[in-house]
Amino acid sequence: MSKTWQISVPGSTANLGPGFDSIGLGLSLYLKLTVTLQDHWDIIHLDDNGPKEFELEEHLLYVIAKKIAQQYGQQLPACRVEMASELPLARGLGSSAAVIVAGIELANQVCELDLTTQDKLNLSSQIEGHPDNATASVLGGLTISSMDDNGLVDTFHINDIDASFVVYVPDVELKTSESRSVLPEQLNRSYTVRASANANMLAASLMARDFERAGRYMEADLFHEPFRAKLIPAYAEIRTAAKANGAYGTALSGAGPTMISIIPSAIASDFVHLMKEQFPEHQVILTKADEHGVQVNR
Predict the structure, then answer these.
(1) CA-CA distances (angstroms) from residue 50 to 44, 55, 68, 174, 204?
(2) Residues that bind ATP, according to the entry (predicted)?
(3) Which of 46, 77, 165, 190 has its CA 20 to 30 A from that of 289?
């Protein structure tokens, strides 16, 4: 058995507007782990995108890896784990889902569990509570998923997303629990029918790779963005400026506060320059869809 593993997990964006808790997209922004067996546990964060102080027993990576090992009747061996992340915490770029997927893969490798891709989809989505970010980190590319009451995940997976994406990361955190607290408990029937139709059109447009139409439906969400917009710095201003500068559409990334635009790749350089000038208080990052999902090198 190999004694050292390199594990790479893409971050992700979820929802893309009306695809609430079901549509995800793996992004070329990564959580990378170097895992080495040793006689005691060390988890070392190589950047600021991780907790500065923590107890081992409360670290999400360790919690997940231990849980998965025990679930399969194995004892998790001690490891040294070096973690480097391009995913800021609590910003809507799938940082927790990436750690969950990494923890599952860590246990899979060091305990030789031989998990299938379907196992990883089910386990990560069950832990997350919904399959959007989790499936995107496992598979990469675009995922459209559902999870039944038994925690079984069914996913359409599409690669070769020939568009570029720009994320706008504000210098504030927004916990998913806080952003969910502003959502209404109930929606009336006619409103829900319109919201569902917009989600269907978004999914169909993405699967058809009609990104111009997908952009329109990204901006037509009725499930969550109308209620969360007030929590998001420069929400309306970013949407308006992005459209004026050539974006197909702009939406919250997950629960926010990060926002994401889908744009033609041909305008990427000029677009990013313009948006950086207009929103200097945000990190404006150009990225692409990840094509591979979780990867392991030994």
Answers:
(1) 9, 13, 22, 15, 36
(2) 88-98
(3) 46
